[in-house]
Specification:
Length: 406
């Protein structure tokens, strides 16, 4: 949790060194840093697109790394290998169209060989031959310990097999600067051969929320970083461009295609959801930046965002709606991250379903549903819920009822 990690990672000497790093190693990227990849994502022939969200694996050294917060009887046999074993099982059970890793993939403080740990933790996704993407969390990088800057960590991910991850956006304008590493968007096209097969009917946005930081100017601040104005400017411009393309010829649509946003550290607004409005559990305070970035208002202003998915809080797994945007935790997946003994680690699944139009073709998105799978013998499914539906746009189209694989 935040208090324990702060004590472990900082001290006065560390503060001075980190300050130097902040001054001499800026986090601003330009378009020259981009590695542009072809976007191959598309709804399947059943009119569905399934995303498996994996957060907070905290992988370190494989078998040599002990588990945290498990029953005493499990300590002898539990290690990082439990994390990767369950990842393989989850991928096999759900067979998603895309795997999204939402940060704290590697626990850099404890990883003896950082690149090897990266390779091992993503190996189940690579072996599956399913497209996958990742962003960084606050524990993925600790330059004081590993000597690896945040940019290099994201570059390593971008260079791995089967990933569509990007170092930063491919659509940055000339001389445009953007804060952080791992800001990008992906488009999901309609079903092959359908009227919308050349349009992005679902848009995914990924943003870097940084790490724990210190600054003395212009004001003193110790805490988590936040989504910066340059990121929000790029996000708004990209959302506008995608909406214009979707609602223009050929086959102009009446409403924007739904957008989903993924980042690691939650916004302050995650604390504004009451327990009566949640599906899932809130078992710890929302550890977020001390600065309200305004990004929740930015998502509202964009007009296309239906849900935002985060990690960071390992024992929170709830979704709750605020101003028509669903705010969802993914919960902790890895056994080297903190948890609660007896409360199974888990992952979130997001399933997006298209309308079946009156002429039998696949149309725009009809519904977005979610559920969670637990780390237990049966990979139990819990908390199925509808996050968004297009009811009201076309009353002649029947509402989609999710079918979850068991």
């Amino acid at each position: 949790m935040m208090s324990s990690s702060i004590r472990k990672e900082v001290g006065f000497v560390g503060l001075i060194i980190v300050l130097g790093i902040l001054i001499f190693m800026p986090k601003i990227a330009t378009s020259s840093n981009n590695q542009i990849k072809e976007k191959l994502l598309r709804f399947n022939k059943n009119g569905e697109f399934k995303i498996l969200q994996i957060s907070d694996m905290h992988y370190a050294n494989g078998k040599a790394t002990a588990c945290r917060d498990v029953f005493p009887s499990e300590f002898q046999t539990c290690s990082d290998l439990n994390t990767t074993d369950y990842l393989r099982r989850f991928i096999h059970a759900e067979n998603p169209d895309l795997i999204v890793f939402t940060g704290d993939n590697v626990h850099s403080m404890d990883a003896d060989n950082y690149n090897r740990s990266m390779d091992e933790v993503f190996a189940p996704a690579i072996e599956s031959n399913i497209p996958w993407i990742a962003i960084l969390g606050n524990h993925d990088v600790n330059t004081l310990v590993t000597g690896i800057p945040r940019q290099a960590a994201m570059e390593h991910i971008v260079g791995m097999k089967n990933t569509l991850s990007l170092l930063n956006p491919s659509n940055l304008e000339e001389d445009e600067l953007i804060w952080g590493w791992g800001n990008y968007n992906l488009e999901v096209a309609g079903v092959e051969g359908s009227p919308l097969h050349n349009k992005s009917v679902l848009n995914l946005y990924l943003l870097d929320t940084g790490e724990y930081t210190y600054s003395f100017v212009p004001t003193f601040y110790v805490g988590y970083e936040w989504i910066q104005p340059s990121q929000q400017s790029w996000f708004l411009r990209t959302s506008k461009q995608l909406q214009e393309a979707y609602m223009s010829e050929p086959i102009p649509q009446q409403e924007p295609a739904p957008g989903l946003v993924f980042f690691h550290i939650p916004l302050q607004e995650f604390n504004n959801i009451s327990k009566s409005e949640m599906v899932g559990e809130k078992q710890e305070f929302v550890h977020c930046s001390g600065v309200n970035s305004g990004f929740f208002d930015t998502m509202n202003a964009a007009g296309d965002i239906k849900a935002a998915f985060v990690g960071h809080g390992h024992t929170n797994d709830y979704c709750g709606k605020l101003c028509d945007i669903q705010l969802c935790f993914g919960a902790g997946f890895g056994y080297h991250g903190y948890g609660i003994a007896g409360w199974p680690r888990r992952a979130r699944v997001i399933n997006v379903k298209l309308d079946k139009t009156q002429d039998g073709n696949w149309g725009p998105v009809n519904s977005i549903v979610t559920w969670k799978r637990l780390h237990d013998d049966r990979l139990t499914v819990i908390d199925p819920e509808v996050l968004w539906t297009s009811i009201g746009r076309d009353q002649s189209v029947s509402f989609y009822k999710p079918i979850m694989s068991e």
